[in-house]
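In response to a reviewer's request, we include the raw inputs and outputs for one of the modeled complexes. The two entities were modeled together in a single run.
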Amino acid sequence: MIEQTLKHSTTSHTSGLLEPVWAEIVSITPEAEGISTFWIRFTDPAVAATYSFQPGQFNMVYIPGYGEAAISISSSSEDSALIGHTIRFVGNVTRAISRLKVGDVIGIRGPFGSAWPIREMEGHDVIIACGGVGLPPLRPVIYYIMNHREKFGKVYLLYGARTPSDLIFPKEYASWEEANIQVHVTVDRADEDWQGQVGVVPMLFYRFRMDAPNSLVLTCGPEIMIRFVVYEGLARRVQPENIYVSLERNMKCGQGSCGHCQLGPYFICKDGPVFRFDALQPYFNVEEF
Amino acid sequence: MQELDKVKLELGKIPWFQELQIKHLDMIAGITQLKQAHAGETLFRESDKEDFIYIVLEGRVALDMFVPPRGKVRFYTAERWEVFGWSSVTPSVRQRTAGATAVTETFLAAVEAAKLRELCDQDHTLGYLVMRRLANVVASRLLITRLQLLDMFSSPEENNAK
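The model returned the following structure tokens for the whole complex.
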């Protein structure tokens, strides 16, 4: 099973893995309360010319004096001119990032980790189920699908957040729908002004007919949400090997050395963050893990 | 087309009604009205004695509760082929426990709850199928409520602090 998971491990270039390379913040896009996307450009043109990543991978973002945080890349993997990191300000490092301005410089190590199974998705229906800041690691997948729409079957995005004001990237949903992606959005609760759906992400599986044998499910978000997304997929007879989850744990080194993000035999930072569910299944929902 | 035939036609499109025998479909159709609600129209309010169980045929209906001083809080939306107002089928619930408002132009099947209870008492095969379906509805609503109670998107400090 480890081999099955490692098959998706895609860390490919060596510079910038042990020591940070520097990048300038080019723009900052507020997405929701406490969440912004930081668009960066590497200061060294040689790094900018060679840097590449695959959808699902992350960078270690370094702020001198504060430390590093693992942040998924939320921009298109086919356009590395500017790299986007959508960040929720919840800890010391990310709060320090929230105080940065355009023109400031940050350190980047990466990209690290495994990627979403783009090749395996080709020719199949794809269900992208995510919640909260689980959408940013999947946005590169959405962009890839939009750029190569003919390679994929039906595509569904099931996305949820706590309230309507917590939804991120709302201005993009229309363009995703124009690319023939069915976008289902829900919120946990709302007031009378909200015209959309109210409920939780797993419930969105009730609302469309899935061709389970021909479908892959990709999910990212709070672990409790992931669990019930997986249950809904399995209940509809999606095979465990066709379900992919991206986990977020306490990643520190990004290389599987420090052990902070260990889950069973895996290091989330090195073997993940994207796992095929059959590899993860024995350790999934085990309370001690 | 006669009203009853229209009702049968609409009910026949609902996946779980396709499990029913013709005679059971006819029995339910006989106690069902088709209703249309405009966007923003209130179907019932919390504490109303109104006694229908609804199935959304087209559109979207929001279920809400009035919470002083927050106002109306929406906690669920029923979409196509979903049931709401199901607690009126139970013998112990005497009034609406939440309000229902059409969010969009909505087309509904409204089944008379008291008569449905009678039919289920008289024909236990039908009663079993109806109650099995309602158990599904209640179970899914319970799961959704649990996940909402957990407030999945809260407490990032505890889990994701960096």
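As requested, we also summarize the result in words. The domain at 118-283 of chain A is CATH 3.40.50.80 (Rossmann fold). Residues 223-235 of chain A form the longest helix (13 residues).
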